[in-house]
Specification:
Blueprint: E1 2-5, H1 9-21, E2 27-30, H2 35-39, E3 46-50, H3 55-68, E4 74-77, E5 93-96, H4 102-119, H5 135-147, E6 154-157, H6 164-173, E7 181-185, H7 191-199, E8 200-201, E9 213-214, H8 216-219, E10 224-228, H9 235-247, E11 249-250, E12 259-260, E13 264-269, H10 273-279, H11 284-290, E14 293-296, H12 307-322, E15 327-328, H13 330-338, H14 344-358, E16 363-364, H15 371-374, H16 382-392, H17 403-421, H18 426-433, H19 437-446
Parallel strand pairs: 1-2, 1-3, 3-4, 4-5, 6-13, 6-14, 7-10, 10-13, 15-16
Antiparallel strand pairs: 8-9, 11-12
Helix pairs in contact: 9-11, 12-14, 14-17, 17-18, 18-19
Pfam family, one: HTH_8
InterPro entries: AAA+_ATPase (IPR003593), AAA_lid_NorR (IPR058031), Homeodomain-like_sf (IPR009057), HTH_Fis (IPR002197), P-loop_NTPase (IPR027417), Sigma_54_int (IPR002078), Sigma_54_int_dom_ATP-bd_1 (IPR025662), Sigma_54_int_dom_ATP-bd_2 (IPR025943)
Keywords: ATP-binding, DNA-binding, Nucleotide-binding, Transcription, Transcription regulation
Length: about 450
């Protein structure tokens, strides 16, 4: 839900109509006094706040939003320069000047959507526990227990989908640090925004910076900052990160004050950093700073004994999300254990979710698995994966089905899975789906996936 808060009722209605014209669902107009009661238990996608409201009122609204979810984007409408001095250093604040232009509103709504994709709880992602009793998993648990109480910087390496963030969260939870676990994907944020996201900025530091904003380093004060996909960090940012690791101080963009930070840094990558050093795209001195304590996350193909436990955990997640519980026949489970899982746990999660959509009741048989997993699909690739989906849908239920709705459901879930894997980056998700960006944006609106 998007909430519009303005001191003038006619202005609220106009903004609401413009947002709805852009095909945004659930737009509510409210006042500074009743907005909290109006939204009830609805999930906030964004709050539009008039810049003309008194500072004290703005502060009250910001505090109310933070109490619900400090990751809700705030959109300041109008040209007033009286933004609250207390204006939420935690917040992602966007600006829409008067008169409001459709192209500017469209860009703001797209950014709101992208933020909400990242915010949305990924119900198919593994939980916070490390599942499995293989030797590799036991070794990882032992390393976590050893390094967690220290202040050592940790570098987690491994293929995509192996649970590197779960390892980082376990280190944080066992560290005794009282601050937050703050994560940022260095490869998912455009280079020109990454510095602001990490270090924050002062008011007036660049066009549109109407309020000062804390970066992830400050938000992680007393806790842990997780730098995911560190191998994709631009070289210029690597220099600044190296300085923070050495001196434990930061400077906001546009600021002159050095701000000390008490944080634990954990980095992760699926890249070969030594190769990147040889290519000149990753600094060797930063590599040694980060890899004080290295941990390697094993691919799923090297620990097939963990597949049954992981599959059961993911089936529980499916039951929570869809309200249906699938089961696996012995032959189907054996095929899952024998498969090499190039996409690791993330691929297993996608397969279990797909089976829940296509086979919402009963026991999944071997012939209902994708061909690549059954072992008769040849070399695995996108065509094989698509063929596996097609094969598993050929059995028509006895009571028939609504084909249009069935295909729409499959499309929606595939788009949602691509967006989760791309951390909400539309261009990246579009590429993985073989779609143009504009086409994907339209499908996102059609399937109401923006919030």
């Amino acid at each position: 839900m998007i909430v519009v808060i303005h001191e003038a009722a006619d202005q609220s209605r106009q903004i609401k109509e413009l947002i709805e014209f852009m095909d945004a669902p659930q737009v509510l107009t409210a006042t500074a006094d009743n907005w909290r009661a109006q939204i009830g238990d609805s999930r906030l996608a964004a709050v539009f706040v008039s810049a003309g409201l008194p500072k004290s009122v703005q502060s009250r609204i910001f505090d109310g939003v933070a109490a619900i979810d400090c990751n809700v984007p705030l959109v300041v409408t109008g040209d007033g320069g009286s933004l609250s001095d207390k204006a939420a250093p935690w917040a992602r604040i966007l600006n829409l000047p008067n008169p409001m232009q459709i192209d500017e509103l469209s860009a703001v709504l797209e950014e709101i959507w992208a933020v909400n994709v990242v915010r949305r709880s990924d119900t198919m992602a593994p939980g916070t526990e490390l599942i499995g009793e293989s030797n590799d998993m036991r070794m990882i648990r032992a390393l976590i227990e050893r390094v967690a109480p220290s202040q050592a910087t940790v570098l987690i390496t491994g293929e995509s989908g192996t649970g590197k963030e779960l390892i980082a969260r376990q280190i944080h939870e066992q560290s005794g640090r009282t601050g937050e676990f703050v994560a940022i994907n260095c490869g998912a944020i455009p280079e020109h925004l990454l510095e602001s996201e990490l270090f924050g900025h002062e008011r007036g530091a660049f066009t549109g910076a109407q309020v000062a904003r804390a970066g992830r380093f400050e938000l992680a004060e007393g806790g842990t900052l997780f730098l995911d996909e560190i191998g994709d960090m631009p070289t210029a940012m690597q220099v600044k990160l190296l300085r923070v690791l050495q001196e434990r101080v930061i400077e906001r963009i546009g600021g002159t004050k050095s701000i000390p930070v008490d944080i634990r840094v954990i980095a992760a990558t699926h890249r070969n950093l030594q190769q990147r050093i040889d290519e000149g795209t990753f600094r060797e001195d930063l590599f040694y700073r980060l890899s004080v304590f290295p941990i390697e996350a094993s691919p799923l193909r090297e620990r097939p004994d963990d597949v049954p436990a992981l599959a059961n955990m993911l089936i529980d997640k499916v039951a929570e999300r869809y309200g249906v519980r699938i089961s696996l026949s012995d032959a189907a489970l054996a095929a899952l254990c024998d498969y090499e899982w190039p996409g690791n746990v993330r691929e297993l999660a996608n397969v279990i979710e797909r089976l829940a959509v296509l086979r919402p009741h009963g026991e999944v048989q071997l012939d209902e698995l994708p061909g690549a997993i059954r072992g008769d699909g040849g070399d695995r690739g996108e065509d094989d994966a698509d063929a596996g989906v097609a094969e598993s849908t050929l059995q028509l239920p006895d009571d028939g089905l609504d084909l249009k709705q069935h295909l729409a459901t499959i499309e929606r879930d595939m788009i949602a899975a691509a967006l989760r894997e791309a951390d909400g980056v539309v261009q990246k998700a579009a590429k993985s789906l073989g779609l143009g960006r504009t086409t994907l944006v339209e499908k996102i609106r059609r399937h109401d996936l923006r919030d």
